[in-house]
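Tokens as discussed.
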């Protein structure tokens, strides 16, 4: 396990992030809780400590290459799953007021236990589908940043995520690979939803040969009230 801790520290160093001993302990507790819960609930296929460090923790924090998280005050993680990228970001940037959104209640119960055990404040879990929650006034256009590591095409993800972002804010999608075709196909959706594609970049994960693609979309206008469409429509019939 010591090797994994060094891997974490070295990886964060390459991202120009300093970690305290308390934060190291938070990551270790999160890992232990995830592995224990994973025996009874499918949270992740990645369980080796070193792999979790790289493919979950460092991957989640790779976003610092795209945006200065010190300037972010409100953030939502759409389709958070086992808490990625939200929990690692919150550990390293505790000032951010954060919402973890997921459609599976039992995953959120696990995350609530993590939040309590790690003493994370200014953080809430929300159960529901993005299409439904984005219509609620308390979440719609309230966030400086929306992130998602969920697997969906960019057109669909944009309809899930852009409505949560306030004008002037950002939606950043974590993609395994964002093809030119996928981005081209999403251009109409991004524009209709009030967004503007500002950057797409491939970055290598520290301590590995794995690449992560980031698609960065700036919110330049309000999202029309009719979006997102009713649950299921964005995935079946992308804009």
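Sequence:
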């Amino acid at each position: 396990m010591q090797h994994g801790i060094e891997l974490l520290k070295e990886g964060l160093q390459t991202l120009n992030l300093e970690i305290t001993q308390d934060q190291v302990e938070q990551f270790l507790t999160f890992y232990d809780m995830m592995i224990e819960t994973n025996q009874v609930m499918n949270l992740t296929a990645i369980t080796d400590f070193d792999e979790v460090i790289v493919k979950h923790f460092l991957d989640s924090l790779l976003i610092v290459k795209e945006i200065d998280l010190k300037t972010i005050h409100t953030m939502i993680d759409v389709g958070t799953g086992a808490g990625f990228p939200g929990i690692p970001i919150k550990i390293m940037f505790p000032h951010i007021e954060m919402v973890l959104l997921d459609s599976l209640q039992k995953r959120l119960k696990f995350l609530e236990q993590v939040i309590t055990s790690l003493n994370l404040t200014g953080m809430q879990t929300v159960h529901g589908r993005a299409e439904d929650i984005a219509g609620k006034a308390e979440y719609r256009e309230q966030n400086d940043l929306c992130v998602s590591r969920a697997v969906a095409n960019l057109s669909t993800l944009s309809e899930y995520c852009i409505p949560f972002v306030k004008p002037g804010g950002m939606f950043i999608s974590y993609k395994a690979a964002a093809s030119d075709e996928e981005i081209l196909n999403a251009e109409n959706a991004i524009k209709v939803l009030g967004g503007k594609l500002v950057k797409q970049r491939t970055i290598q994960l520290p301590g590995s040969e794995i690449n992560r693609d980031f698609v960065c979309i700036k919110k330049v206008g309000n999202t029309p009230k009719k979006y997102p469409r009713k649950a299921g429509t964005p995935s079946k019939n992308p804009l």
